[in-house]
Amino acid sequence: MPESVPQPVDVIRARALDGVAHGFLGRRGGVSTGIYAGLNVGIGSDDDRAAVATNRARATDAVLPGAQLLSPYQIHSADCVTVLAPYEDRLRPRADALVTDRPGLAIGIITADCAPVLFADLAAGVIGAAHAGWKGAIGGVTESTIAAMEALGAKRDRIAAAIGPCIARASYEVDDAFARRFEAADPANERFFAPGKPGHYQFDLEAYVVHRLAAAGLTRIEASGLDTYAHADRFFSFRRATHAGETGYGRQISIIGL
Questions:
Q1: pLDDT truncated to tens, each residue of the chain (258 aa)?
Q2: What DSSP string describes 135-158?
Q3: Whole-angstrom Cα distance, residue 149 to residue 144?
Q4: What is the rounded CA–CA span in Å between residue 223 and residue 39?
Q5: What whole-number distance in Å separates Cα of residue 177 and Cα of residue 167?
């Protein structure tokens, strides 16, 4: 039988980033199979290495053909690295955000429920990408990215930011200790938690990241409103895979480039 042809790569774009090559990609359009079926780009997954490499190439071509894709070794930190030249995957910096002003480089963030945030100051020719899980978000990863962009000549009042698909409040159950951690940082953070079952809450990660971006002075902010957990046919989800008792999980990528 002939080999099946992968679906087209699913590229979600944000109006706030019009004019710059970018995309929030889901699981459609890849060559991985089994629990990783689709466009799994996770170098750290147990998926076939050749399939992951093919998927990463397909993802890059869908956003900025011919570009060099660079992503960090993500550690749920607030650390941001400025990228001025390509590097090998084995030399990925340990960080959760990248910024650059170099044409031909595509910077990517890997997620599987956390919030991917893409940034651009078109006038300055400076872009950024941040992985905002709850640890990075409360730690200030978006603020670190904005500061690194400013160091390359970006202006805060010109920076646009878009938040891609991530786990939504309806799907993100957390315990009381989790909520208390956020309220200790700022009592106003209570508004990002809705009551859940006894001793638990539903956390709105996307709204919290929007709040952090706005508090940092950004005025052009767009959120996708897409829930990675709820759409198994379109997105990978760490929490969904865990609840299903699967032995691994795929990762999707969000890319921006000049």
A1: 344 566 899 999 999 999 999 999 999 999 999 999 999 999 989 999 999 999 999 999 999 999 999 999 999 999 999 999 999 988 999 999 999 999 999 999 999 999 999 999 999 999 999 999 999 999 999 999 999 999 999 999 999 999 999 999 999 999 999 999 999 999 999 999 999 999 999 999 999 999 999 999 999 999 999 999 999 999 999 999 999 999 999 999 999 999
A2: HHHHHTHHHHHHHHHHHTT--GGG
A3: 9
A4: 22
A5: 19
Domains by residue range for the chain, with CATH = 11-168+204-257 (3.60.140.10)
Q: Name the residue with tokens 């959120």.
A: 223
Residue that the structure tokens 């679906």 belong to: 7
Find out whether 58 and 28 touch, Cβ atoms under 8 Å.
no
**Long-range Cβ contact pairs of 128-131 (< 8 A, separation 24 or more):** 128/80, 128/97, 128/98, 128/99, 128/100, 128/256, 129/97, 129/98, 129/99, 129/254, 129/255, 129/256, 130/80, 130/96, 130/97, 131/72, 131/74, 131/76, 131/96, 131/97
Burial 10-36 (b: 16+ CB within 10 A, else e): bbbbbebbeebbbbbbbbbbbbbeebb
